[in-house]
Amino acid sequence: MRIEAYNQVTQIYNSSRVAKAQGADSVKKRDEVQISRTGRDYQVAKQAVAEAPDIREDRVIQVKGRMAAGNYKVDNGEFAAKLLAKYDAYC
């Protein structure tokens, strides 16, 4: 670490400490919380996921119809590859 950088950090720290001590006698301010745009977007997305159904009924109906008609075929190799890919994502 450069000595100049350390000295600059020390000066900034000491000046802010003095400013805080002088400001302590002033009028008390009310605390505020500001949520960033990213934080608000995250909250909206989280709420949308929470409100979404766990089961996609349209897909269930489609697969049931294909199974009943005998058109639903599963490629074992493709299924195994997808299963391993998901397993690798968790490890």
Could you please describe the fold and organization of this structure?
The protein has 91 residues and is mainly alpha-helical. Helix content is 70%, strand content 0%. It has 4 helices and no strands. The two termini are 38 Å apart. The mean pLDDT is 82.
Layout of strands and helices, then pairs:
Layout: H1 3-23, H2 37-51, H3 57-69, H4 76-90
In short:
This protein has 91 residues and is an all-alpha fold. It has helices at 3-23, 37-51, 57-69, 76-90.
Q: Keyphrases for this structure?
A:
91 residues; mainly alpha; 70% helix
Q: Over the alpha carbons, how many angstroms does the gyration radius reach? A: 29 Å
**SSE sequence, one letter per element:** HHHH
Number of helices: 4
Distance between the termini: 38 Å
Tally of strands? 0
Beta-strand percent range = under 5%
Helix/strand structural class: mainly alpha
Mean pLDDT: 82
What is the molecular shape?
elongated
Q: Helix share of residues?
A: over 70%
